[in-house]
Amino acid sequence: QVQLVESGGGLVQAGGSLRLSCAASGDITVINFMAWYRQAPGKQRELVATLTYSGDAKYVDSVKGRFTISRGSPKNTVFLQMNSLKPEDTAVYYCVAAWSGPDFWGQGTQVTVSS
Fold first, then answer.
1. Is the Cβ–Cβ distance between 36 and 49 less than 8 Å?
2. Phi/psi-derived region of residue 32, left when phi > 0, alpha when psi is between -120 and 50, beta in every other case
3. For residue 53, is pLDDT > 90?
4. pLDDT in tens, 13-43
5. What is the pLDDT of residue 48?
6. How many CB atoms lie within 10 A of CB 26?
7. Strand, helix or coil at 28?
8. Hey, how many other C-beta atoms are within 10 angstroms of the C-beta on 7?
9. What's the pLDDT score for residue 21?
10. CB-based contact 79:73 (threshold 8 Å)
11. How many C-alpha atoms does 96 have within 13 Å on its Cβ side?
12. Of the candidates 10, 14, 7, 1, the residue with the CA atom closest to the CA atom of residue 102
């Protein structure tokens, strides 16, 4: 089992920045890669960014150049640095740990960007 706890969400004006954190605990050795998803009201859940343990990062087109996914020290912490935020980035953001079984999900953290 892996437990994920997100933090760092909040209310920010358009153009501002936030950094989300995700702390993983438990049997983290089984994790293949980490990811951030988001879900806005009335919309489908969207994959925002992924990060493999070798450091390969990928992003959805809408956040490229604005968001950065990274791993902290110790390596059980993953960050999502969000710059130049837009109102359309408003959503609940979830940290996900992927392994050979069903993904582990955090409880989510709300990000609200005002115009």
1. yes
2. alpha
3. no
4. 999 999 999 999 998 888 889 999 999 999 9
5. 98
6. 14
7. helix
8. 13
9. 96
10. no
11. 19
12. 1
Q: Which amino acid is at 115?
A: S
Round the average pLDDT of the chain to a whole number and report it.
94
Contact assessment for residue 110 and residue 41, using Cβ atoms and an 8 Å cutoff:
no
DSSP 100: S
Nearest to 56 by CA among 89, 38, 32, 77: 32
d(CA 44, CA 47): 10
Of 1, 18, 17, 100, the closest CA to residue 9 belongs to 18
d(CA 44, CA 91): 11
Residue 92 CA from chain centroid, whole number: 10
Determine whether 3 is exposed, middle or buried from the number of CB atoms within 10 Å of its CB (0-12, 13-18, 19+).
middle
